[in-house]
UniProtKB/TrEMBL annotation, chain A:
Chief location: membrane
One GO molecular-function entry: L-phenylalanine transmembrane transporter activity
Family under the similarity heading: Belongs to the binding-protein-dependent transport system permease family. LivHM subfamily.
Compartment annotation: Cell membrane
Membrane topology classification: Multi-pass membrane protein
Protein name per UniProt: Branched-chain amino acid ABC transporter permease
InterPro entries reported for this sequence: ABC_transp_permease, BCAA_transport_permease
From TrEMBL, chain B:
The protein, known as: ABC transporter ATP-binding protein
Pfam families: ABC_tran, BCA_ABC_TP_C
GO molecular function (one): ATP hydrolysis activity
CDD domains referenced in this protein's UniProt entry, alphabetically: ABC_Mj1267_LivG_branched
PROSITE patterns: ABC_TRANSPORTER_2
Domain ABC transporter, residue spans: 8-256
Iron in keyword set: no
From TrEMBL, chain C:
PANTHER family (alphabetical): HIGH-AFFINITY BRANCHED-CHAIN AMINO ACID TRANSPORT PROTEIN BRAE, HIGH-AFFINITY BRANCHED-CHAIN AMINO ACID TRANSPORT SYSTEM PERMEASE
Protein name: Branched-chain amino acid ABC transporter permease
CDD domains: TM_PBP1_LivM_like
Pfam families: BPD_transp_2
Membrane topology of this protein: Multi-pass membrane protein
Alphabetically ordered keywords of this record: Cell membrane, Membrane, Transmembrane, Transmembrane helix
Transmembrane segments: 9-29, 35-58, 65-84, 90-110, 117-135, 155-173, 200-220, 240-265, 277-297
The keyword Nucleotidyltransferase appears for this protein: no
Primary subcellular site in the record, as a coarse category: membrane
InterPro entries named among the record's database cross-references: ABC_transp_permease, LivM-like
Localization: Cell membrane
Amino acid sequence: MELIQQLVNGVSLGSIYALIALGYTMVYGIVRLINFAHGDVFMVGSFVGFYAVTMLGIGFFPALLLAMAACAVLGMVIERIAYKPLRNATRIAVLITAIGVSLFIEYVTIYLRGAQPEAYPSTLLPDRNLKLFGVVISSQSLFILGTSLVLMILLQFIVHRTKIGKAMRAVSHDAEAARLMGINVDNTISATFAIGSALAGAAGVIFGIYYTKIEPLMGILPGLKAFVAAVLGGIGIIPGAMVGGLLLGVIESLVSGLGYSLWRDGVAFVILILILIFRPAGLFGKNVREKV
Amino acid sequence: MAAKTPLLKAENVGIQFGGLKALSGATMELHQGELIGLIGPNGAGKTTLFNLLTGVYVPTEGRIMLGGETLNGLPPYKITRKGISRTFQNIRLFGELSVLDNVKVAYHAHARHSMLSSIFRLPSHFRGEQEMEEKAIEFLNIFQLDSVKHEKAKNLPYGQQRRLEIARALAAQPKVLLLDEPAAGMNPQETKELMKLIAFIREWFALTILLIEHDMSLVMGICERIYVLDHGQLIAEGTPEQVRSNPKVIEAYLGEEVS
Amino acid sequence: MATWKRTRGFWGSVILAFAFFAVVEWLIASGMLNIFYVNTLFFMAINVMLAASLHLIIGITGQFSIGHAGFFAVGAYASAIMTMKLQLPFAVGVLTAGVAAMLAGLIIGVPSLRLKGDYLAIATLGFGEIVRIALLNIDYVGGASGMTVTHMTTWPWVFACLLVTLLVIANFTNSTHGRACISIREDEIAADAMGINTTYYKVAAFVIGAFFAGIAGALYAHHFYIIQPSNFGFLKSFDILIFVVLGGLGSLSGSVIAAVLLTIVSTFLQNYPETRMIIYSLVLIFVMLYRPTGLMGTKELSSLWKWRKTEGGVNHGGKNTVA
């Protein structure tokens, strides 16, 4: 029963990773950029949700939507100011810029409100423990899982059934050809950043409810781990990010469950290095070689 | 005209990418001192064959031999050290390095001073570097690049970059030189001079050369034998006259363009 | 005679360096340099060593590594174990620091051969984090509270380590081995095709870079009394990265100048850590947006000097100057 309990925890944690990983993977798929600042967008989303609940006194769903909207705007602004001018620069230049943006968001947040943590109000969602076949599942876990699933299904719908989704797939396949076919590449990239960032914002609010404590540097580790999840599933592949996120969450929970909770944070990086060495394209990816 | 044992030999060489056969059953022989042309329409597999011969790709079938030694599976740098050197269709110079240093890099495998001797500036370091410098300048002289030796490679005009790539490939001291469309993007006058230069280095260094050209008429003048690739298969082989009158070749080229 | 001419620049720099050493030694001994300045000077030297060693990996060989603090940490802890736990002399500690970091460089360098660009960056970042988390979990080295270390780092030690670091890296770079590394940075496929054993040189760059980062770690550990895993997180790696990026990817003198300047800046901003990080982050973004080549590009100070000399009409044969 202990094992199943850990699995349930793992899936909840994993769904948070998966939501963040989706943004990484979508952005990477379309502009080949590891958006280091993505974890910080997640942090901003968490704070927006927190202030919306405590200051405006609104409920969970309005706060979630507000955080998602704020993060979508933030994502687009970051892309326009920092990444767009570097569209043709070297990969290293873009990566360094992304690191810069990440540090900037973190320390501006600290500058504006201090480094002290905040606690999410626990009354936001009904907290009742359900007993199913001897396993205790909190209603919060179910809420989190449900919200994540709805968002992921929504994303699948956007990517596969809407015009903007079609444009996104076209640009990620071949930006030049897409441009020639009359697709507005810049707007499509902006939309990708907006959608990815909105998902990270939602993950921020969910994280706050689940773990209660939030602080300005909270985005770093989940951000990196979500990236690991994206690589695990095959970066650029949307279902890969979901599976990678859930898998990573479960593995981490199992490691904690086995009594190595302090090593939990190291596991993700060991997985990362192993996957990069043995299957760099990820679980769902195809290997591509450089053209000579 | 040809020696008895071939210097470079490809036996039924082929490669598959996923399910796609990019090249199959390619058999060719290069004898010491020959200048051989490799022609074919766009996408016929010419560069793929080069990549197989130089170890960039590992053949999924067949065997590549250099003077009786099998090269299959060796990494590119080892194949280069065994004596096959190449240029690239889309110029791949070391842009930030000077012209002189570009050539020196290719001579690196023949340098004898160790890393430690360089770090501690032992006499062997200075001797080794001196020798490299002299050798590199020799090559630059042949290609009339000595006047720009301190320029960054990326700042050279296009024609000089093409020449520098050949100079660099030669500095690796190959037995076989593979040139991938060396005249691409050059005007007729430059092309003519380049072909003269290629004929000259072949004599001077006693080289065996395999030359890719997209334009058939160009190689007719200087190559002794020509191989023709189309759709990943060698469809013809022979002297320029034989190839020119081969109906398969005519069809392959007429199917695409009239040259 | 010929050798003298070639090594003139080298000996000139060595003599200058020793003059600098003597002056500082005298200033410290006579008490004219107060502890604040001595601290800043030591910190500057350690940062220069870190910057120079990362420059070899990123700037010269083009391997984008952002886990340099990991090597720094390995060196710091390895030396502290030698001197504090095993009571061995400082010299043994310094050497062990270098060797231990070198082994770590080998461990991260070998898998790195398969990775390129941003994948390598993430893997090295992961490596740095693994080192930090491992240190956090090993009780022998004190876990989160870290180790207390006796103060043993003196100016002669700092100076000697710094000089050796810069000389070795400059000498390596200005040789056929350094050119082999640069050719990998410029075009790995072409380097391979020209007979360069790219695997060997990538690992060599990691190993040499890690060695000196480890030495810097030993100096750091024995200067600041206490070492904790939190001193070696990826913020430290980013600090080092900023030196190299701001200085110019590919310029040793650029990295050194940037390390010196930014050490001064961060000393002034010591009491405003957020402001410091905001400035750092803006520096990263603006350098990439408006001057992606950094302060110096791939140029060196010595080449500026040489260029003026050739302008003057004196033709200078090869470029054999060191440092």
